[in-house]
């Protein structure tokens, strides 16, 4: 069976902060997460993926700002995530972008069914990232 692992790890936490791990299966609801937690892990052995997001403030942002799951279709989330991932990966390999923000590429392929939960969390991480770091990942800024 083809092993597919998506590892998305952003480490921009203050050295004095102490992070806690939160494991969230695809069927669990994130609304039970504490605002003090800094790590979200989504894993599902049946489709062999893992997403880890380590980002101070993301959990509490999700509780306050994320729209309910019923607001989005899976198709919408997949389409937006392809746009976000494409631009993110371009910035990882391109000079001229802050290396502290764009640490590693994201292995997210169009046509693979990652499930609703992965797409939901990944989409909201990109929205959070844009707001927190004043970045715009959906508009391509060509260099002249």
Helix run count: 3
**N- and C-termini, Cα separation:** 45 Å
| DSSP helix fraction | 25-40%
Q: Can you summarize the main beta sheet?
A: 3 strands, mixed
Order of helices and strands: EEEHHH
Low-pLDDT residue spans: 1-36
Residue-averaged pLDDT, rounded?
Answer: 74
Tally of structural domains = 1
Sheet with most strands: strand arrangement: 1-2-3
Q: Kindly provide the radius of gyration, computed on alpha-carbon positions and rounded to a whole number of angstroms.
A: 15 Å
The dominant shape is globular
Protein name: Lipoprotein
Pfam families: DUF6146
Structure characterization notes:
It is a single chain. With 144 residues, the chain is an alpha+beta fold. The protein is built from three helices and three strands. It has helices spanning 58-65, 74-93, 116-133, and strands at residues 23-24, 39-44, 49-54. Strand 2 and strand 3 form a beta hairpin. It is globular and about 35 Å long.
